[in-house]
Design brief:
Elements (H helix, E strand, L loop, with lengths): L5 E6 L3 H12 L4 E5 L5 H6 L1 H19 L14 H25 L3 E4 L2 E5 L2 E4 L2 E10 L3 E3 L13 H4 L8 E5 L3 H13 L2 E5 L11 H14 L2 E3 L4 E7 L2 E6 L4 E4 L1 E4 L3 E3 L32 E3 L10 H16 L13 E3 L5 E5 L2 H7 L3 E8 L3 H5 L5 E8 L5 E7 L3 H13 L4 H6 L21
Parallel strand pairs: 1-2, 1-6, 2-3, 6-16, 8-9, 8-14, 9-10
Antiparallel strand pairs: 4-5, 5-6, 7-15, 11-12, 12-13, 17-18, 18-21, 19-20, 20-21
Helix pairs in contact: 1-8, 3-4, 3-6
The protein binds flavin-adenine dinucleotide (FAD).
Length: 451
């Protein structure tokens, strides 16, 4: 029997790696984890958590505008970017400490530094070679910026979290959820914001009613959305950036943020030398159990380019721990994974879009409502909330729920449970609503929209 230093060596103490490591240790495995940058990974340091804190900050801008209708007067209104970033950084340091404690308390050994795979059972870190029965690659992803003249002046979400000052004008490039969220953050905090996307409409893959409603809402608020366009070059004069678009238009800004994609953090990891197969984009090829092309090497999370979401990385980590150390081979489920966009206003979705239902060729009904939220009857804000259900005509099962409006993420989380239980439209209809709420609309839509 081969003897190894550890049962499991995890590379990357992010969302997936920490969960897989501590759960495996809980099952009795001897576990080590390597982290080269920050405990908690992208989500805690430059992803979900700081992003949502900045989103909260940006919503106060609107709240101040809205409060007069409720009888409030605020004499002075001033925003301090440096204070926000300082407080956000303090909270991240606290979370880093919690992640360290989670690992220590679970009996996981932490190595701080850059780890590389040497062979199917060996990892190198800090001049040491460590052996393990299994190696788990959980190295996450990194933002990418396309190369073009002046692309070196662009920043990514990584830098946006640490800008020394709030830019007066900002251009956000990219139509994914990160771009949409940062456009909302900068605009809400008072920056003049332009968002560019090379496609016809942002948030590809989301239901078209979400995409169109959000575009309308962002435009109403004053975000300058420009689709079917891209940046050809950026020039810098002093502190000012000038972006030339493909149609020759020139836009000026203090910061240009590219949120156009993320690549797996697999370069300089030794994976190819060890015989691990990678996709053309560097993502690790894995089977349904997250096993790579080498029996003893597994990979989870963003670096496998399946669904780049924290709860998915965590579910994949739990599944690997169960498969390897709990005698329960587990495939994570990707069915009805809910997701939110913390745009202004929020969007959230679970299940099938109308376009996907149409592409499947199945008979379905669409229930849709669009209304002015009760809150804005007194504020005077011209905002619409949109909710939508896709229902299978033959089984009556609800296939998809989509929403744009305040707290959409909180509401759709509950809908995801219903969809996973196979809820029918009749069961939605017999559910008593909570009144007065926006969520009650999901159980009171009675008439399908004409197809
Ligand atoms: C701006 C932004 C906002 C986001 N918002 C959301 C959201 O609202 N909801 C959501 O679900 N998801 C969100 N995500 C995505 C989410 O952050 C990721 O899907 C998640 O963090 C992936 O977890 P992971 O374990 O795969 O990788 P990570 O969390 O990135 O962890 C990988 C870790 O590995 C370390 N590492 C890499 N290489 C090595 C090496 N060779 N040696 C040692 N350590 C190494 C890295 O330093 C890192 O700490 C967001 C992402 C971004 C960028």
């Amino acid at each position: 029997m081969a003897q190894y230093d550890y049962d499991l060596f995890t590379i990357g103490a992010g969302s997936g790696g920490v969960r897989a490591s501590r759960v495996s240790a809980g099952y009795g495995a001897k576990v080590a984890v390597a982290e080269e940058r920050y405990l908690g990974g992208t989500c805690v340091n430059v992803g979900c958590i700081p992003k949502k804190l900045l989103v909260y900050a940006s919503h106060y801008g609107e709240d101040f505008d809205d409060l007069a209708g409720y009888g409030w007067t605020v004499s002075e209104r001033r925003f301090d970017w440096a204070k926000l970033i300082e407080n956000k950084n303090k909270e991240i340091s606290r979370l880093n400490g919690i992640y360290r404690k989670i690992l220590v308390d679970s009996g996981v050994t932490l190595f701080e530094g850059h780890a590389e795979v040497v062979d199917e059972h060996t990892v190198a870190i800090g001049g040491k070679r460590i052996t393990a029965k299994y190696i788990l690659v959980a190295v996450g992803s990194w933002p990418t910026v396309p190369e073009f003249p002046g692309s070196e002046y662009a920043i990514t979400s990584n830098e946006a979290f640490y800008l020394p000052a709030l830019p007066k004008r900002v251009i956000v490039v990219g139509g994914g959820y990160i771009g949409v969220e940062f456009a909302g953050i900068f605009h809400g905090l008072g920056a003049q914001t332009t968002q560019l996307y090379r496609g016809k409409l942002f948030l590809r893959g989301f239901d078209d009613d979400i995409r169109n409603t959000l575009a309308d809402e962002m435009r109403k608020r004053g975000v300058d959305l420009r689709f079917d366009t891209d940046i050809r070059k950026i020039e810098k004069t002093g502190g000012l950036l000038s972006a030339t678009l493909i149609d020759g238009t020139v836009l000026h800004a203090e910061q240009i943020l590219f949120a156009t994609g993320r690549g797996s953090k697999t370069p300089n990891l030794g994976l190819e030398k060890a015989g691990v197969q990678l996709k053309f984009n560097g993502a690790v090829v894995v089977d349904e159990y997250s096993n790579s092309s080498i029996d003893s090497i597994y990979a989870i999370g963003d670096c496998t380019d399946r669904m780049m979401l924290t709860p998915v990385a965590i579910a994949e980590g739990m599944a690997v721990a169960n498969t390897l150390f709990n005698n329960k081979p587990t495939k994570p489920s990707y069915l009805n994974v809910p997701t939110a966009v913390f745009s202004t206003p929020n969007c959230a979705t679970v299940g099938m879009t109308e376009a996907a239902a149409r592409a499947c060729g199945q008979a379905f009904d669409v229930y849709r409502t669009s209304f002015k939220p009760l809150r804005h009857t007194l504020t005077g804000r011209d905002e619409r909330t949109m909710m939508k259900l896709i229902v299978d005509r033959s089984t009556d099962r609800v296939l998809g729920c989509h929403m744009v409006g305040a707290d959409a993420g909180e509401i759709i989380q509950g809908m995801a449970i219903a969809l996973n239980c196979g809820a029918t439209k009749a069961q939605f209809d017999m559910t008593v609503g909570i009144h007065p709420s926006a969520a009650e609309e999901f159980v009171t839509m009675r008439t399908p929209v004409p197809s």
